[in-house]
C-alpha cells in the first residue's frame, strides 16, 4: 500500500508551464509503474504519462513533445513537467502507483489554463 500527495497545480496562461509533483508515503524503488492521469467533469480518467522503475516512459498523444515525466526514487517523487500548456489541458490531474495489481491514487490537483 502507498499514499500519494500531489502538489503544483494552479492557474496558468496559455503557453505557460507548470510542474506537478507527487510524493509517496514510502519507498517507490520497487513500484514498477507510476504516473499521471487527468479527469474532466463527467469524463473518465485518461492516462497522461507513465514511468517504470527502469525509466521507461509512455505518453498520451496530446502530451508528447510538451510534457515530461520523471522519477526520483531517493525523494520518493514522480514529477510531471508541463510546457506549452493549452486551455484543453485544463483538468484535475491525479498521480497513481501500480502496486501488487492495484492502482493507488492521490487526491488530485487542479490545473487551469486560461487567459
End-to-end Cα distance, whole Å, is 40 Å
Please, how many helices? 0
The overall strand count is: 11
Give me the oligomer status. single chain
Largest sheet composition: 7 strands, mixed
Q: pLDDT below 50 for ≥5 consecutive residues: which ranges? A: none
* β-sheet strand percentage: over 45%
C-alpha Rg (nearest Å): 13 Å
Overall average residue pLDDT: 95
What pattern of helices and strands is seen along the backbone?
Answer: EEEEEEEEEEE
- Helix share bin: under 10%
Give the structural class.
mainly beta
Estimate the global geometry from the Cα principal axes.
globular
Notable characteristics:
single chain, 115 residues, mainly beta, seven-stranded mixed β-sheet, four-stranded antiparallel β-sheet, 11 strands, globular
